[in-house]
Amino acid sequence: KKLRSRPIVFERPRGKSSKTPADHPDLSRTWEPWIRERLPPGLAATALQWIDVPDQAMRTVTSKLLSKMAWMRLFYLHIILLYAATAFWYAQTTAAPQDTPLEALQQGSLSLRGSGT
């Protein structure tokens, strides 16, 4: 009974979900002042527009991925396939050692029992 009589300190506004950094101005564009300080005003505005287009596109894709479980799983599957393809390519392009342990055993230069035999 006493807990319910306490005032509510914070409650998220209804109708707004604060899941995106765009809702939090402190998180969304912390680098904007750095660009504005170092570039002339016209160039800074153009640079921010060029940065904003892919940023909004990535935010849209991310929000859609988070809202649809199937799309998110497909995204993770494609990441795994990319890593597998990269590992396969890397394995094909690296130099193999001259003699693998199996080849050394077949040639008789290595013994399974050690040097005592």
Q: How would you describe this protein?
A:
It contains six helices and no strands. By secondary structure, it is mostly helical. The relative contact order is 0.05. It is extended. The protein has helices at residues 2-5, 25-28, 32-38, 41-67, 69-93, 101-107. Helices cover 63% and strands 0% of the residues. The N and C termini lie far apart (85 Å). The longest helix is centred in the middle third of the chain and has 27 residues, at 41-67.
Number of strands: 0
Main sheet attributes: strand count, strand direction, barrel closure = none
Question: Could you say which overall geometry the principal axes of the C-alpha atoms support?
Answer: extended
* Rounded Rg: 29 Å
Structural class by helix and strand composition? mainly alpha
Tally of contiguous helical segments = 6
Descriptors for this entry?
117 residues; mainly alpha; single chain
Secondary structure layout:
Blueprint: H1 2-5, H2 25-28, H3 32-38, H4 41-67, H5 69-93, H6 101-107
Helix pairs in contact: 3-4, 4-5
